[in-house]
Specification:
The structure is a single chain. This protein is α/β, with parallel strands linked by helices. It folds into two domains: 183 residues, Medium-chain alcohol dehydrogenases, catalytic domain (Quinone Oxidoreductase, Chain A, domain 1); 160 residues, NAD(P)-binding Rossmann-like Domain (Rossmann fold), CATH 3.40.50.720. It has twelve helices and 20 strands. It is globular and about 75 Å long. It binds NADP nicotinamide-adenine-dinucleotide phosphate (NAP). The site of NADP nicotinamide-adenine-dinucleotide phosphate has 25 residues, from α1, α4 and α5.
Length: 380
């Protein structure tokens, strides 16, 4: 790379002050020298996932969003309620780059990474809300011919999570799955994956339109938590599938306990009474925090149960590079089918900092994921 200045661009930063103010801005970032195993990616498409919003906005009160700066270099501030400041103590006064994953052309490469030059790659290098991003070649997935940066923008987190759920099921001796917030992008992906692989899946949603969306996509077991018959329907779906493992994206409230109790109801049906309940293990992994309120457990499900956290990056580290590569290869092969993501709107880096746009993507509503296209809509 001879003329580095051609590759300098803007990068988004998120900072929380000790006084409890969230600050977002775009910072000019000069291109730096690449190490031999690094590439420079022109970021053309990067999704705003719920996990990105956690870092981007922290626990800010979005009714206090205030726009500032200039049209080309907007800034955004918001108030962090005092009671929630302790939860972000570790990041106070540190400007953070944001954006877990994304895709774009490789425009420069270190000596050992020249094979990727000119290719469209997906990467989860972090800091993807930027015009350019340096990534390790080993962290890049070269997209097959004909697959665009937009197709590959969400190639890592949700696809590998869906595959990770199925792997976890097999490795931990379960034979079917329960999934909550199941009409999410990830939920729709998991539904396609389970249909393709012949795995029984119980989809838990919170309204009828979400239930219909999944049924239209071929889901056999969909239960709606807003219905009075919810618990009965859940028990019947668990009975029909034999599911003893759930992945819960909601986290807060009583849903995890209701799932464990419903599994226990099925397992103890027709069995002689045992005050410790069924000996079969029931497991819920809380892998998202869509409801940030406390998880409420009434422990009405015997003694053979577990609840834990689950993170895709730690799961991939645990299974090792060979198995992780196997999952990545499957994602690459099925990126526009099983693992396709959909977006409601494409926005620039500048638009990301518009208060109205922030409020829209912060809703995390079904079918309303936003795609940022930093270098496709290059700001002046
Ligand atoms: N642990 C990990 O490694 C990992 C990896 C990937 C994803 N995730 C998690 O997976 C979840 C889904 O991600 P995504 O990208 O697929 O999201 P998404 O497409 O933005 O969809 C979010 C879904 O959650 C629903 N929802 C929002 N708040 C809810 C609440 N309080 N109760 C019930 N449903 C609620 C929305 O339904 P409405 O329209 O009804 O609001 C929508 O269907 C997120 O929680 C994300 O953090 C975790």
């Amino acid at each position: 790379m001879n003329d580095r200045t051609e590759f300098s661009g803007l990068e988004l930063r998120s900072l929380i002050t000790p006084e409890g103010e969230l600050r977002l801005w775009l910072e000019e970032a000069p291109a730096r020298e690449l190490a031999a195993d690094e590439v420079l990616v022109r970021v053309e498409a990067t999704p705003i996932n719920p996990s990105d919003q956690g870092l981007l906005l922290g626990p800010a009160d979005l009714s206090t969003l205030r726009a500032g700066g200039t049209p080309e270099r907007p800034t955004l501030t918001a108030t962090i309620p005092e009671a929630r400041l302790a939860s972000v103590a570790g990041r106070i006064d540190t400007p953070l780059p944001v954006g877990n994953e994304g895709a774009g052309h490789v425009v420069a490469a270190g000596a050992e990474a020249t094979a990727l030059l000119g290719r469209i790659v997906a990467t989860r290098a972090g800091g993807m809300y930027a015009h350019y991003r340096v990534a390790k070649a080993a962290e890049c997935l070269a997209l097959p011919d004909g697959v665009t940066a937009k197709d590959g923008a969400s190639a890592f987190i949700n696809p590998l999570t869906a595959l990770g759920m199925v792997e976890t099921m097999r490795r931990e001796g379960h034979s079917a799955l329960i999934h909550t917030a199941a009409a999410s992008n990830l939920g729709q992906m998991l539904n396609r994956l389970c249909l393709a692989d012949g795995i029984a899946l119980v989809n838990v949603v919170r309204n009828e339109s979400q239930a219909e969306l999944l049924r239209q996509a071929g889901a056999a077991h969909v239960v709606d938590s807003s219905q009075p018959r919810f618990v009965d329907d859940l028990v019947e779906a668990i009975s029909a599938t034999g599911a003893t493992l759930a992945f819960d994206a909601i986290g807060g409230g009583t849903l995890a306990a209701t799932i464990l109790k419903s599994i226990e109801t099925v397992l103890s049906r027709g069995a002689a009474f045992d005050r410790y309940g069924s000996a079969v293990n029931k497991q819920v992994y809380i892998y998202g925090g869509l409801d940030p309120s406390p998880t409420v457990l009434d422990r009405s499900f015997g003694m053979a149960w577990g609840i834990g956290g689950w993170l895709v990056t730690w799961f991939l580290a645990k299974i090792g590079p060979q198995d992780a590569a196997r999952l990545r290869d499957r994602v690459a092969a099925e990126l526009t089918t099983t693992f396709a993501s959909t977006y409601t709107a494409e926005i620039s880096l500048v638009e990301m900092l518009s208060p109205d746009v922030v409020r829209a993507y912060a809703k995390r509503a079904t079918g309303e994921k936003y795609l940022v296209t930093p270098s496709a809509m290059r700001e002046p």
